[in-house]
Structures are given as structure tokens and as C-alpha cells.
Amino acid sequence: MKRFTAVVPAGRFDPAVVSDRVVLDYDSRHRRRIVLYGEAGTVVLLDLSEAAHLRDGDALQGEEGGLVLVAAAPERLVEIRAGSQAELIRIAWHLGNRHLPTQLLPDALRIRTDHVIEEMVRGLGGSIAHVEAPFDPEGGAYGHSAVHGHAHG
């Protein structure tokens, strides 16, 4: 088992030096300490000083060197589209008001499957399609980690 103590953001390392890859769903990518298993057999002890949200394309750095790529696993999601940019922005506001993790795409939004929210989106004029895709939602406004709740007064 190799100990990995740092996260290198996507685009800040040479992909040619990556020795293995771990494929994780959204929930499994918010971690501080866990044992992970790479596709090529590397046993990774992730041991960070504080919890971090691992993004698709990041790398885990071993304390003795070496990098293991983080890949977002495909998940069942809802892709939301609207007839206009203004309608899509309005839907995004309603999703944010409910603190739902939301992935922002150039012309669509992605959320986890939720029949109640799907009905709300339809009621706001949006269309939905069920897709299998990696889920990499926008981080919280006050940090770069997962979406979190806050008090309203």
C-alpha cells in the first residue's frame, strides 16, 4: 500500500507520468482518508491533512513520488435544457435555492436523478433527459469543495 498525501489539480502535471487510475463517483470524491484501488492494482492510502473534493482529471501524489489519476465514474443523471438562456438561468436559480449539486454545461445543467425536482423543472418550462455521465458539479461559492448548506438568518 502506498501513501498519497497531496492532490495535484488537473492540468498541472504531465499525464505521461501517471501510473494508475482510480474511478470514483461523486460521493466518493470528497475525502480525507480512505483506501482506494487503482485499475492497474495500486493500493492507495489517501491521507490528506483535510478533506478535499477530488475533481475528474486531478491526480493523487504519493509521498514517495508517483501520481494516480482521479476519474469521475459515470452516474445516472438528469440533463436539463430550456428554450432560452434566460429560462435555463431561472431553472439554475431554483436548483441553487435548493442547494442541489449542479453541473454547469455550456447549454445545459446536470443534476442527480430526483423525480420531485424533475417535475419542478418541467413546471418551469425545462426539458429533461436521463443520461449516464460523470458528475462534476460546481463547487461552493466560499471554497472549492462540494456544495454545502448555510443558515438563512
Short structural description:
This protein is mainly β and 153 residues long.
Task: Explain what you see.
There is one protein chain. This protein has helices spanning 85-97, 115-123; strands at 2-8, 18-24, 30-37, 43-53, 59-62, 67-72, 74-81, 103-104, 109-112, 127-134. The protein is mainly beta. A six-stranded mixed β-sheet has the order 2-6-5-1-4-3, with no helix packed on it. A four-stranded antiparallel β-sheet has the order 8-9-7-10. The N and C termini lie far apart (47 Å). Residues 144-153 have low confidence and may be disordered.
Return Rg in Å.
Answer: 18 Å
Main sheet, how many strands, which sense, barrel? 6 strands, mixed
The level of helicity is 10-25%
The global form is elongated
Which regions contain 5 or more consecutive residues with pLDDT less than 50? 144-153
Q: H/E element string?
A: EEEEEEEHEEHE
Distance between the termini: 47 Å
Quickly give the structural class: mainly beta
**Could you give the count of β-strands?**
10
% residues in beta strands? 35-45%
| Count of helix runs | 2
Averaging pLDDT over every residue, what do you get? 92
Kindly report the spatial arrangement of strands forming the biggest sheet. Answer: 2-6-5-1-4-3
